[in-house]
Amino acid sequence: MANLSIATLFLVVVLCFAGVSVAKQCPNVQPVTDLNVLKYLGLWYEISTTSTSDNTFERNCYCTRANYSLSTDGSYLVVDNTCNLGSVQGPQQAAIGKAVPDPENPAKLNVTFGPSPPAPYWVIILDPNYQYAVVWSCEAVLFTPVEFMWVLSRTPTMDASLYASITQQAQKITGYNVDTLIPTPQQGCTYQ
């Protein structure tokens, strides 16, 4: 009986290691190299996001936007994510977080909300005038990549041709199928 338990344990360990060797990993994505944190501050409207966001922490959110400000000591960004719950006229819900830029490349930020562990928030596409951006996040969870993408704009809407251009660029960078991005309702919103 002891030999059977040892054999079973050995088989489980071998299968786990085999799973690790064939597990899909996050793509090797490089963020932009010239992010000026001070220019990135301010209000950004979410134009679209992944189902990963839409089905979890942005569930039932409309009019989603993020406002970034500098902490009083200047060491991190304060992230104020706000959405209207249930409809464009629904009550507002906010989540306040902290984004810490990588000293080597400020476009690589680690973001936390409350007691959660830091998550990557990488700016992979950025308009030279800071009018739009695409943000990417990917972490392997149980040998499976969990991918997030946000298309952001300084205005609540984005020209369709610009959107198509930057999302195709994002797909080339990440390998993520941007046809699955979910548009964020921004029409008729009540912003406070």
Structure description:
With 192 residues, the chain is an alpha+beta fold. Strand 2 and strand 3 form a beta hairpin. It has helices at residues 2-22, 37-40, 51-54, 160-174; strands at residues 42-49, 61-70, 77-85, 92-101, 108-113, 119-126, 132-141, 144-153, 182-183. The N and C termini lie far apart (67 Å). The chain has an eight-stranded antiparallel β-barrel. The longest helix is centred in the first third of the chain and has 21 residues, at 2-22. Mean pLDDT is 86; it is low at 1-22. It is built from four helices and nine strands; from the N terminus they run H-H-E-H-E-E-E-E-E-E-E-H-E.
Itemize the secondary structure elements and their pairings.
Blueprint: H1 2-22, H2 37-40, E1 42-49, H3 51-54, E2 61-70, E3 77-85, E4 92-101, E5 108-113, E6 119-126, E7 132-141, E8 144-153, H4 160-174, E9 182-183
Antiparallel strand pairs: 1-2, 1-8, 1-9, 2-3, 3-4, 4-5, 5-6, 6-7, 7-8
